[in-house]
Every structure is written in C-alpha cells, then in structure tokens.
Design brief:
The protein has 203 residues and is mainly α. It folds into 2 domains: 120 residues; 34 residues, no CATH class. Helices cover 60% and strands 10% of the residues. It is built from 5 helices and 3 strands; from the N terminus they run H-H-H-H-H-E-E-E. It has a 3-stranded antiparallel beta sheet, with no helix packed on it. Strand 2 and strand 3 form a beta hairpin. The longest helix is centred in the C-terminal third of the chain and has 39 residues. It starts with a helix and ends with a strand.
C-alpha cells in the first residue's frame, strides 16, 4: 500500500514539474517574440520604389489596380504625344528643306505620314509644338500621380496606428439647464473609456 502511495506521489510531482517547465517555456517565448509594429516609413519607401508596394504593405490590395490605372493614363498619353511629335517634327523638317529658295531638297517628302502630307508647313509646326507641349505635360502628370500614391501610402500607413475600436463614439442628447431653465443640445464624446468622456453643450 505504501508503494502505491509513493507511486501516485511521484506521478503528481512529475506532472507538476512538467507544468512548471511548460509555463516557463511559454513565458520565455513571449519575452523573446517581438511585436512587429506597422511602420509608415516602410510604406513610403516601398511606394516610392515601386508603385503599389506601399499599399500592399498597408494591406490595401484593392488600391493597387487603381494606382496602376492612374499611372497608365499619363504614360499612354506620353507615348501617343511623343509618337506624333516625332512625325510632325520630321514632316516640318522635310517641308522646310523642300521650301528652301536655294538648293531645295524634296527627297524626304515621300516619307511624311499620310495624315500630314496635305498640311502646310505652318500647320505642321503648330501641331509639332502642341504635341511636344502635351508630351512634356504628360511627364509632369506622371510624376504627380507617382507622388500621390506615395502620399496615399504614407497617410494610410499612419492611420493604421490610430484607435478605431468600438470605444470611439459620440452621442447627441437634449439637455435642460436647471439654472436658466432653457433647453439645449449636448453631445457625449467617448475617446477611449468612460473616464475620458466629455459633455459639450450646444445652444
């Protein structure tokens, strides 16, 4: 009988010792694991390198197609205007050489784009200047769009750290001033907990 009690006592002690070791291991794991906080600077750097990378870091994946859609507009306008700028520039040079009073050269006229052959040299010059201006503007709009997506990643990276829990609330309620006996309107603003509530009167 004594051997039986000793056996049970040994089992209880071993179980208690194993539980103690398990709790110690859990505590050490909690101490060694570092909580990774959201860093808005990482979102800024990533979006500045690759468009949409900062939005992916903020876990706003639905914004990535919007970012590339916005950037695609000035990029496509750049290629369109640059293509027509080169055509009108060539056409202007060909028409200019063909209209020289001394030693005119009309060998380049056959290579002018068919849509430009019927235009005068003044019209071709105006189109050339317009396409060059629009090409330069498209570069500017592309840079602005890139900067906006960087700003979006930065702002929403900072907003990730704000408290958006259910403790944030604002309640409106009618109020009667007991001194002047005049009605009013007040609202309760709850920022964190019940200790931070403020009552503001609006009359």
């Amino acid at each position: 009988m004594k051997a039986y009690h000793r056996f049970i006592w040994i089992i209880v002690c071993c179980s208690w010792f194993n539980c103690l070791l398990a709790q110690t291991d859990k505590a050490s794991v909690k101490d060694t694991v570092k909580i990774r906080k959201h860093d808005p600077r990482i979102a800024t750097r990533r979006s500045a390198i690759i468009p949409g990378w900062g939005q992916a870091y903020n876990r706003e994946y639905w914004k990535i197609p919007l970012v590339y859609g916005v950037l695609a507009i000035p990029a496509s306008l750049y290629f369109y205007n640059n293509s027509w700028y080169k055509k009108t520039k060539f056409a202007y040079e060909a028409l200019y050489k063909a209209s020289l009073p001394v030693n005119p050269d009309s060998s380049m006229l056959k290579d002018i784009d068919p849509q430009l052959k019927t235009l005068s040299i003044g019209s071709v010059q105006s189109y050339r200047n317009a396409f060059r201006r629009d090409r330069d503007y498209s570069i500017l709009w592309f840079i602005i769009a890139w900067g906006l997506q960087v700003a979006d990643a930065t702002v929403f990276g900072h907003l990730k750290q704000f408290d958006i829990s259910n403790d944030l609330s604002m309640e409106w309620s009618p109020k009667l001033d007991p001194v002047t006996r005049t009605p009013g309107l007040g609202f309760t603003l709850n920022l964190k907990n019940s200790a931070s509530r403020r009552l503001v009167d609006v009359r």
